[in-house]
Amino acid sequence: MTHDDDRGPAPMPSGRPSSGAIVPEGMQRSAAFAPINIALSKYWGKRDHERNLPLAPSVSVCIAELGTLTIVAPNQDLDGNVMLINDKPADQKALVRVGRVMRAVRALAGTEVRAGVRAVNTVPTAQGLASSASAFAALARAATAAYGVDLDDSELSGLARLGSGSACRSIHGGFVLWQRGELDDGSDSIAEQIATAEDWPLRAVIVHIGEGPKKTPSGEGMRLSAATSPFFSAFIDTCFRDVSECLGAIAGRDFERLGVVAEANCLAMHATMLATRPGLLYWQAATVEVMHTVRRLRAAGVGAFFTIDAGPSVVVICEPGAVDAVSTAVGGIPGVVKLTRTRVGGGAHLVPNG
Ligand code: PMV
Description:
By secondary structure, this protein is α+β, with helices and mostly antiparallel strands. The chain contains 8 helices and 14 strands.
C-alpha cells in the first residue's frame, strides 16, 4: 500500500477512503472537481523546482467536462496519507507531490491528522492533456475544505502550484493569467482570472491521440531544456511578449489575434523542446496532420486554432460555429483515437456528498 513520505506504512483497510473512517472533529470528508486547462502562452521553465515557480508568466483557458474528481477524508487512524488514482495505489512520485500539498494544508489547519485521498480522472493520463493540473487543483480545493481551512482563490492557486505548476491555473475558470512573481517564497506567483467562460464562450475540440514511446515528464523536460536547448532563453523572452499579446486579444475578444499568438507560442515551445538534447519529440504523425488540417480549415474561413502541451494530443480552440467542421475534418485522421467536443468552462469547485 502506498503512503506519503513523512510516516511509516499506513494500510487503508478498505482500500479507499471509507465512510466508516474516524473523522476528527472540525474536519469532514470533502470532494472537489477541477478541470484541465490548456495554456495559450506556455509555461516551460522554472526559477524554483521545489516550489514550481516559473521563469515567465503564462495564460490559459479551462476546459469544461475533462478533469479530476478528488475526495479527501481526514482519518486520525492513519499514520500517513494513502491515495488511489483511478482505483490504483498512487506511485511514490505522485505521493511525494501530494505530500507537499497535504503538508501545507496540515500546517494551515494546525493538525498532524493524515487523510485518505481518492482521485478519479475523466481525462486520460500521459497524453499531454494536463491531468496533473486538474488533479492538484481538485486536491487543493477538496483538502482545504476537508481540513476546515479557509483560503481565497488566489491562495488556493498557490497551494495547488506546489503539486504541479500548471495546477494553479485550474482553480479559476475561464481565461487565467499565472503571474511569474518575483519573491523567493513564491507568494506572488499566483493565478488570477482575466475573463470568465461566459464573457467569451469559445468552444474546444480535444483531439485525443494515443501515446507512443514513454514520454519525458514535464519537470524533467524543463530541466533538460534549460540546460541544453539553444532556444531556451529566447523562448522565455518570447513568453513575456506573448502573454501581453494574449491579454490584449482576450480583452478585445479578438479570436484571430489570439489564434496567431497561441499557435506561435505553442510552436516556439515545441521548437525549444525539439532542440533539447536528447530531443523532446512529443508529437505523433497524427499530431502534425491535425495541425495541417486546422490551418487548411482556417484558410477556408473556419474560426479555429490549435495548441499542444507535452504530449501528442491536440486541443483545437473554436468559435462556436466551427465545431462541426473541425470535428468532421480531424475525426478521420489515422491515429486520432477519440474527439471530445467541449467548451471553455468553470474552475475547481466543491461537489456535494463526494
Ligand atoms: O504543470 P506541469 O509541471 O505539468 O507543466 C505543464 C507544462 C505544459 O503543459 C507543457 C505547458 C503549460 O503551460 O501547461
